[in-house]
Structures are given as C-alpha cells and as structure tokens.
Amino acid sequence: MSVTKLGKFAVIGLSAAWLAGCSTTASDSDTSSMASEGSEASTSDSTYAAGEDGSLSSVIMDDQADAQQNADLLAGVATVFYFDFDKSIVRPEAREALAKHAQFLMDNPDARIVLEGHADERGTREYNMALGERRAKAIMRYLTIQGVAAAQIETVSFGEEVPVAFGHDASSWQLNRRVEVRYE
Amino acid sequence: MRKNILFALFVACITMALPVRAQLVIEITSGADQLLPIAVVPFGYSGTSPLPEDVAGIVESDLQRSGVFEAIPRENMLSLPNSSKNVFYRDWRLLKADYVLVGGVENNGNGTYRISYELLNVLTQSRVGKREALDVKPSNFRDAAHFISDKIYEQLTGIRGAFSTRILYVTSEGDRAAPTYKLQVADADGHRPQVIVSSKEPILSPSWSRDGRNIAYVMFRNRRPSIFIQELASGKQQQLTQFRGLNGAPAWSPDGKKLALVLSKDNNPEIYTLDIATRRLERMTNHYSIDTEPTWEPDGQGIIFTSDRGGNPQIYRLDVRTKNVERVTFEGNSNTRARMTPDGRYLVTVQKNDGNYHVALQDMNTGRVQILTETYLDESPSIAPNGSMVMYATSDRGKGILSVVSVDGLVKYRLPSAQGDVREPAWSPYFK
Fold it and tell me: A73 pLDDT band (50/70/90 cuts)?
C-alpha cells in the first residue's frame, strides 16, 4: 500500500483522509476484509473519521527520533484494547495509544508485533476464534492505515480460550473481549 | 475421577450388595414418562476374591441413562435370582417390571471370569434370546457390562446401543490464569478417563475419524494454533497445518481421507478440505464473512458450516462438488456449531435467543425446530452414533461440565467432573 511510504512524514491526523483512499484502492483481500464486517465496517470507518480530533493531530511523527526516544514513547502506553460484544470496531479511546504504537513501528521497521485477539465465553469456541481474529485484524488495519508495514504485524486469535477475568458477568466479559499487542 | 474409581473399587471390595448408584457420577435431571421398566438383578457370584466391578450395576446405569428404560431399584427387589430357573415372575409383576435381566459371574481360574446373563420378558414369562456368556479379564469388566447393555438395548428397541462408545473432551485445570489444558478420552459414561495430550497452551476442537482410530484437534504451540492428527492406539501424533492465522475446527470426512478445516491464510476464515495422504488443500468457501465450524453430512456430499454472511451467524450447507451454498437455519438470533445425526434427519445447533445459548434440534425434512436444553451457556453438541442422545458442554455455578439430553428432549443427565472445567465433548463413532 502506498500509505506505507508516506508514513515517515504523515501526520497522524491525515490518516482519516487516507482511510477513504484505502478502502477504494486496497487489494481485493483488503476490500473483502473491510466488507467482512458488514454494517460494523461502515460504522468503524465513520468512527475513525469522526473521532479524529485535535489531540491526535498534534502527535507528529518525528523523523529524527532514535530508538531510546521511541522506547520512552511506548512507556506506559496501553497494550490491551477492548471491544463491544460481537463487534470488532476499534474504540475511539484506543486511538491515542495505537498512534504511539504505529509511530514506534514506523520508526523501527525491524520491530515486529503480534496482535492477539480474544473473545468472551459466550458463543461457540471456533466462532469465537474467528471473532478474536477479526478484532486483531481491526487493530492491524488501524495500524497499517497509519502507515505501519503489514509485514511488521502478525495476527493470532485465542478465541475464548485464554480469559483474563474469570467471572461470568458483563464486567468479566468486557475485560476478555480484547486484543493484546505483544512485541516479539 | 481417579478418586471415584478408587471409591468404586473400594465399594466393590466390601460388598456387592450396595446400590451401585452411589458410585456413579451420573445424575438424571429429568426423565420421560413412557419408560420401559426393567429390573437388572445383581449378578450372582459365589467366589471369594472380590470382583473388579459390579457388572449389573453398570448395565443398570447404562439403561437408566438411555432415555428408554426405567430401572427398578435394587432395594425394592423381592428376590435376587441369578438364572431364569429361579425367577418367580409374580415377584416382578408386582414391581411392574416388563423385563428382568439376571446373570452370574464365575471365576474361570485362569485370570478370566465368565459373565453370563439372560433377558426375561415378564409378560410372556419367557427368555428373550439365549443365555449369553462372555469370558473377560478383570480389566474388561466395564467393557463386558457396556456390551451387555448394547445387546439389551438393541433387542428391546431395535436400535444399536451406544454404551460401548467413548468420548473425547478437553479439560482445563489448575491456576486459572495459567491452567493446564488436557485432551482426554473416556468411556461414554465418563469412566476410565485417559489423558491424550497435556499442554500449558490451549487445546480445542477434538474430532474423531469415522473408524474411531484417529483423532484430530487444535493445539497451540508457541502461541499459535496448529491442527494435529493422532492415532489413539499408538499415540503417534502428526502436525498437519501451521498456516498464518486460524488453523481450526478439523472435521474428518466420512471416507476418512480428508479433513474439513478452517484457515484464514488468505485473509478471511474460510472452509478448506485437506487430503491427508497427499496434503492437497482445496478451498471450499469464498466469502468475506466468517465461515467456520464445518461438519460433513453422513454421505460426504455436503459440508454443513457456520457463517455470518447473512449478518448474524447461521448454518449453511456447502455442496462439496459444486461448492454451491444454501442457508439451512432460519429460527433464532443465531445458530452455530452444527452437527448432524447419522441418518441425516436432524441437525443440532447452538441457538441463541435473547442472549441465551441452547442446543436446538432441527428436523431437516419439516424444518421444525425444538430447543432441547435449558442450562446456561450450552455449546459443543455432539451426537451419539445411534442418533439417540446429544452430549454438550454447559456451565454450572461457573464450572464447565458435560451434559446429555435425548434427541426427544425428555431425558437429561450430566457427567460432573472431578476437577477443573470440562468442555468440548466429541462422541465417538462405533468401533469396528
């Protein structure tokens, strides 16, 4: 994708504009994966766009940043992102942290991440494997749209097999519907 | 479970007269009205060395669970004959038994025992078939009992019994934040569990080959899923797939040559078939939605699978030859993880209605749908090879357990586990 080349000087705030370009010029597989979420996909598109605000635009890629600065940049940045039931829409509150991960990955082209998707216990197990992957891919798409090379990202789903909260109630389910960013 | 077996042995050692139900981990939660009353009389034994198992007790519990029989309690029996010669039919008429099973165990003196039995019809006061005898080693007493149950069930219903079958299931035990996952195999009544694979990473989706010799399952290694097949007798394990993304839901074809499975290597979860001998992979679905949870129709001509291509997850049928897809389920908010009865007549699914997940049965001829279960978070239904019962996973007070329901929904029982969460039962086919 041409977005990758632009990463170094792209202002994050531009990504919303790029998203529109992306969904029309992306390869067949990308198009189908966007479309895969049916109504969710259109919702998520508009969420990205509508949610772009001043605070995010102010995070500007630093071409000169060295590795140490990047590491500092990631200190304290969220690595777990949560989702609604049966949904794979990246929530607005995830954007700031994801922007920082995206910047780090663009500044460190050798860095590799695994996005580990998870689901809550409701629904069947293999369907939840697919749902966990869909969530991981939603995060991946968000990062690649910002300019991260797809080759730096792997998605894996654990379905409902590895919960972090063990209750059988809404609050536990919420904590389990997640994608974890793991640096390799 | 081990404790239960030790306890069972202990009970068998001290006396044969204790009611066997105390040892069994099966609990009938509801029953049908029109059950066939049968008295399974404790088998006679005059030896001095203790017997390894109470054969009649196992038969009684098998029949009781079948959804067809109602066992006359031992404590109500007026006499305990061990041969048709000393049966007083009047005693059994008083107890309203339609059938009586009598039998005996003799020590052959060469490390084996002879177990003989006769099935008697109380109404006609005659024997059903011949007096049968089996010579078995002590370690095969449970097999002998299940064999007898199979024979009686078939004689009285015309349907082959499924008591000698086995189940696969997955447990997770220990620290919940870092559990140990185990793939286990046990008798269909939950006894004699054996661990096949144990791992600190998830194991899921166990599936039997049609001859019952091989199994397939998904296991994570280095935080990524792979599909494995394994020969049960030798334990020989083969890793079949290790693609990027999903490697899931293996399902053996009826001819045993292929697995249907789910891969997302081409971006979306799609159904593929893998020829096990040639390793040739064929993509069967091509849709941007989730396609998963394949299972074969009994004749191998169709693959039934879950897809959310219509918005919510529902069950679809794929024609293996033409790859045409048609929707199969229409009732409920969603239907997932289907399995078909061996005669192709019924489809069981996990149906979601108002946030509740239950096992549903759809008649493929009439389209009529019946909800079979009313427990919490029901999933992974698996059908006995005679099509009579459905085993499924459910949750009881936060713990995963296995339950069974008859296809008519009238008889339900559960197999409580000793420890940890139990899930994903897969009922074996008939062996040989």
Answer: confident
Task: Show residues of chain A in contact with B292, CB under 8 Å.
Answer: 126-127, 129-130
Interchain proximity B177–A164, CB inside 8 Å: yes
Interior/surface letters B127-163, b for 16+ CB within 10 angstroms, e for the rest: ebeeeeebebeeebbbbbbbbbbbbbbeebeeeebbb
With an 8 Å Cβ cutoff, is B205 touching chain A? yes
Beta bridge partners of B219: B203, B226
Size of interface A-B (CB pairs under 8 A): 105
Chain A residues whose beta carbon lies within 8 Å of the beta carbon of residue B377: 121-122, 168
How many domains does chain A divide into?
A: 1
Residue A170 forms contact with B (CB below 8 Å):
no
Write the residue in A38, A126, A166 that is nearest to B205 by C-beta: A126
Structural domain spans, chain B: 2-157, 166-427
Among candidates A123, A133, A161 on the partner chain, residue whose Cβ is nearest the Cβ of B204: A161
Residue B231 is inside which H or E element, if any? strand B224-231
CA distance B411 to A168: 27
- Note the CATH number of domain B2-157: 3.40.50.10070
Angle between helices A95-107 and A125-146 (to 10 degrees): 60
Q: What SS3 state is found at B109? A: coil
**Measured between alpha carbons, how far is B48 from B53 in angstroms, rounded to an integer?**
14
Q: Which residues of A touch B202 (CB under 8 A)?
A: 158-159, 161-162
Contact A130 B292 (CB under 8 A): yes
Domain that holds residue A178: 2-183
**Which portions of chain B are predicted below pLDDT 50?**
1-25
Task: State which residue of chain B sits closest to A114, comparing Cα positions.
Answer: B223
CB B105 within 8 A of CB B115: yes
Give the domain CATH number at A71: 3.30.1330.60
The domain over range B166-427 is classified in CATH as 2.30.170.40: no
Q: Which residue of A has its CA nearest to B220?
A: A158
pLDDT band at A67 (very low <50, low <70, confident <90, very high): low
pLDDT for position A40:
34
Q: Is B220 part of the contact surface with chain A (CB cutoff 8 Å)?
A: yes
Give the max Cα distance, chain B: 72
CA distance B174 to chain A (A): 13
**In this predicted model, what pLDDT tens digit does every residue of B152-183 receive, in sequence order?**
999 999 999 999 999 999 999 999 999 999 99
C-alpha neighbours within 13 Å on the C-beta side of residue B114 = 10
- Does A25 score more than 50 pLDDT? no
Planar angle of CA B326, B331, A161, nearest 5 degrees: 85
CB B183 within 8 A of CB B161: no
Q: Do B350 and A162 touch (CB under 8 A)?
A: no
Q: pTM above 0.80? A: yes
Q: How would you list the strands of the sheet with A113-118, edge to edge?
A: A80-82, A178-183, A113-118, A153-159
| Buried/exposed code over B28-55 (b: 16+ C-beta within 10 A; e: otherwise) | beeeeeebebbbbbbbbbeeeeebbbbb
